[in-house]
Amino acid sequence: MNKKTSKNITELNTNSNEKGRNPWFKFFSLNHVGFILIVLTINMVFFSCASSKSNLQSSKVVSSPNGKIAVSVDVEMANYSITLNGKTVLETSKLGVTRADGDFSKQLKLVNTSKVKEVSDTYSMVNAKKSKMTYLANEKTWETTNAAGHKMNIVFRVSNDGVAFRYVFPDKSSDVKKINSEETSFNFPIDAKAWLQPKTESQSGFEHTNPSYEAHYELDIPVTKSSPGPNGWVYPALFKSNDVWVLITEADLGQTYCGTALQQNSPDGEYKINFPQAPEVFKNGVATLNPESTLPWETPWRILAIGDLKTVMESTLGTDLAQPAITMDNAFIKPGKSSWSWVIEKDDSTIYRVQKKYIDFAADMKWEYCLIDANWDQTIGYDSVQLLVNYGKTKNVGILLWYNSAGDWNTVKFTPKDKLLTHESRVAEFSKLQKMGIKGVKIDFFAGDGQSMMKYYEDILKDAATYKLLVNFHGATLPRGLQRTYPNFMTAEAIFGYEMITFGQNSANKAPEHSVMSAMVRNAFDPMDFTPMNLYKIPRIRRITTAAFELATSVVFLSGIQHYAETPVGMSHVSDGVKDVLRQLPGVWDDVKFIDGYPGKHYVVARKSGNKWYIAGINGENAAKKLMLDLSFLAGKKGKFIGSGEGSVADGPSFEIKENTLGADGKYSVDLKPNDGFLMVFE
Q1: Residue 478 CB coordination number (10 Å)
Q2: Which fold has domain 61-320?
Q3: pLDDT in tens, 481-514
Q4: What residues pair up with 168 in beta bridges, in sequence order?
């Protein structure tokens, strides 16, 4: 029985008890059977009159394949809600967008609903937490028109680990349509908590380079708390709602949408979509900020990973909803590890003599690459870089080169600059690099998330693929699944990374907590160039993490190319046993398991490569703790444990290495010092 029919019957029964106002009362009192027959007839009439509408609205709910996650959609009210096992995850939240030519957030008319269909996908990646992913979801589409009769479809997909939805404008038109705002919201219960990173103000910071997704997280905050700045909160955004964890991101922007965030203010726990600030655009050509496109047009997927921490941390929804890989010759795509002088030795290290030393360092550690940073074109030059490339070949070490992305959107002077702004200039530069034997590029200092800037990222990746170059974006936005679409996209910064730890003691003091947050949230779906692991000393900084903590980050953090923050001198103080582990670390992972953790407090993850499992953990708190790990999937296996030795942090790297065999139950107890970590290897 629909709500309208039920309401009419209730009104009829209520009125029938009013003797003085209802002539039917006497009749119904004398003939109960007649009363029942009349009510049934009325019911049938109402059902018949409403049949076409009820067919359209036959189901407002779409559930996950296992039936645990349910999404309720009310198109005419333009809202949705989500439950997990009957628990409210999202309360009534808004749907829709406003286009310059019409409002698609209210007065929507339901035209049709599709049957639930199964969506399945299996794909492989070399730059992800798993080498093979499987996506299975139930999809349902609601076809609507707005008050002006223009079409918009609302598509929901619900998998066992979360929810994704997008808007589709199916009409055909060569006229450019513009979206002024997105009304989509995520409305959490008022007692929910959040773990969020503020999005910094555009054109602020060093040489006007923000926003670059570089800020410390705010932990365990009320969902009513506003971001400290007007640019809102970045993705991924982590929440805990009724003991259910929710991680929000987006994917499949294409070249017809801007990158978005969550708005600064969240009254009563309701977060709305935030478009970028005006300066966040690529200015070489048409500086497009907000979304615009001809029709048909699909908006990005809004993604919510939902479940316990294990489900959310192991989810691959960020790439499941991304576009499949473009066609390219994949032979040159080789993830790996890299030496890098700049993070510790800074600008003065970008000279021929030092870079040759770092090539030797990479060769000794059996790392695949050496990154040469800013101003190399002035301090070394193309001809001498060619000599370094040739030398690297004799050592099986490939060379990566830094570039400044910038046009006039910031004031950074580092070079090479302005060589990548057009397709023609990229072709000229990338073809030169390919002939030299350069393996990849690190491109820095982008302007933000406007549509034209998001297009710039993709244009670079396309041209780099043509010339068989790997790509690392720095001072950049969140990848949002682009690494699936462009397999040559190895990593991106988009994090308050290790260089910040080297700049100031305050960041060094926050490093343990921040590292846990970065691994669990920023690194949840996308590769992250945190540039981790300094085992010895940071000039002018007192590192508060143990050497075992630093070692663990080599596995905890996920990046297609892992650029390590250690020097040849620093590594000379490290024992051969630890160095051998680092020499054998794989560049590609086959599987992942969340073992234990809590945002900001500690994190333990297991990664598999071939027949080896690497279990790494970090303590984000300045307090000792004992962890009882469930490693039952490795029960009875022999392994190597590397933890902190007896020496202090100030004394240099101190490790304890011991052999262990797991018991039949797979339980393993780990004692961690404050700001400590560990690494285990099982075969």
Answers
A1: 24
A2: Beta-galactosidase; Chain A, domain 5 (2.70.98)
A3: 999 999 999 999 999 999 999 999 999 999 999 9
A4: 153, 298
